[in-house]
Design brief:
single chain; alpha+beta; Alpha-Beta Plaits; four-stranded antiparallel β-sheet; globular
């Protein structure tokens, strides 16, 4: 998760410094084509990274919570996946870890820290 954290740090800094919205989305899917499908359906300014075979993180820059829901629902019409998202509002960079834990709880695979 170091690379994701590095990218996240840059986006978190910009968000806090310039007071712009940012939503981070964790996506779970066993569909091997999901990365490309998501990449084709987000803007060039958004960032997508593969964390594992089934887990992807997406940074939706300059996007508020409501707009991110519309984006994810549009993609869900194309391919099936589960997701957890949260709007970053100047929290500490442990934000990704907390979102990851929330995602694992939602999937019922979280066994504590």
């Amino acid at each position: 998760m170091d690379v994701v954290s590095d990218v996240g740090d840059d986006e978190f800094y910009r968000t806090a410094r310039y007071q712009i919205p940012l939503v981070v989305v964790l996506i779970n899917s066993s569909d091997k084509s999901i990365f490309n499908i998501i990449d084709d359906n987000i803007r060039q300014t958004d960032i997508i990274q593969q964390l594992s075979a089934d887990l992807i993180v997406v940074f939706l820059t300059h996007t508020d919570y409501e707009a991110s829901l519309l984006c994810m629902e549009k993609i869900k019409k194309i391919v099936d996946f589960t997701y957890t998202l949260d709007e970053y509002k100047g929290l500490k960079p442990t934000f990704i870890k907390n979102l990851f834990i929330e995602n694992m709880k939602m999937l019922g695979v979280y066994d504590g820290e």
